[in-house]
Amino acid sequence: MSDPTGIFDLPNTSLIFWEIITFAILLFLLYRYVYPPIRDQIQRRQSEIEQAIDEAQKTRSEARELLAEYRRQIDEARGEARQILDEARKQGEAARERAKREAREEGDRIIQRAREEIERERDNALRQVRGEVAEMVILTSERVIGHELDRDGHGQLISDALDSLETEVVGEAR
Questions:
Q1: Mean residue pLDDT across the chain
Q2: Does any domain span residue 6?
Q3: Does a structural domain hold residue 87?
Q4: Residue 161: CB partners within 8 Å, gap ≥ 6?
Q5: Separation between Cα atoms, residue 150 and residue 152, nearest integer Å
Q6: How far apart are CA 122 and CA 108, in angstroms?
Q7: pLDDT, tens only, 60-100
Q8: Is 7 helix (H, G, I), strand (E, B) or coil?
Q9: How far apart are the first and last CA of the chain?
Q10: How many folded domains does the chain comprise?
Q11: Computed over its alpha carbons, how large is the radius of gyration of the chain?
């Protein structure tokens, strides 16, 4: 029985058998000695990559947290800066108002002192004028009447003349 294809040829079957056995041994040796170190290397590399990814994600989340914290701090700093500026404006406005008020009060005091001084000067001037007018009235009266009046008569005459003069002077001043 001879097989023309050579597949079922028994004398050549031993060669195929030994090729299969050799291939099986080769597979066993590869599986036993070559594959474990390659598998371990691949697993170690995979775990390193996973750790690197985890660390990168952790670093990224920390960076986001830090960024959020920095932004919050910047916002707080801007808020504080606005508060400081507002406070400075308020203080400046208060100082300006206080200076205006003090200047106004000082001006009012100066005006009041000037009015008091003017009033004193007016009173002094009226007393001087009264004294001079009294002298003139006495002299004129003596000349007109030809004799001297007593002290009470002089006083009454002077008072009447000065009162009428004062009403005329005050009326002209207004």
A1: 84
A2: no
A3: yes
A4: 133, 134, 137
A5: 6
A6: 20
A7: 999 999 999 999 999 999 999 999 999 999 999 999 999 99
A8: coil
A9: 163
A10: 1
A11: 63
